[in-house]
Amino acid sequence: TFSEDIGDENPVAIYVPGCHAHGFEALTDVLFCYHVTEEYDEADPDEHGVCWADPRVKHLWSTESPILSARDLESCRDGS
């Protein structure tokens, strides 16, 4: 596990191989761009979610009440 502070003073790109989980926390308004290796196939999804409050990653977040996307909320509901 690692974290990287990215922002105006440190504009970087990070490569995350397809077999690794990743997430981000935006502390201000942000423009975020994903580059992917192949187009998403809704009929055969290859994505999995981990709830932000999962004990394996909860310590990485700076808040106890994040604003989550609908997809991320679902990850927390279904126990992923």
Shape: globular
Overall pLDDT score: 83
Whole-angstrom Rg: 14 Å
Q: Classify the secondary structure makeup into a structural class.
A: little secondary structure
The CA-CA distance between the termini, in Å, is 18 Å
User: Could you list the spans in which at least 5 consecutive residues all have pLDDT below 50?
Assistant: none
Helix content: 10-25%
Task: Report the biggest beta sheet as strand number plus sense, adding barrel if it closes.
Answer: none
* Order of helix and strand elements from N to C terminus: H
Number of strands: 0
Number of helices: 1
Strand content: under 5%
Concise summary:
The chain is largely without helices or strands. 10% of the residues lie in helices and 0% in strands.
Care to describe what's here?
The protein has 80 residues and is largely without helices or strands. The protein contains one helix and no strands. The two termini are 18 Å apart.
Q: How is the secondary structure organized here?
A:
Blueprint: H1 70-77
Comma- or semicolon-separated keywords:
single chain, 80 residues, little secondary structure, 1 helix, globular
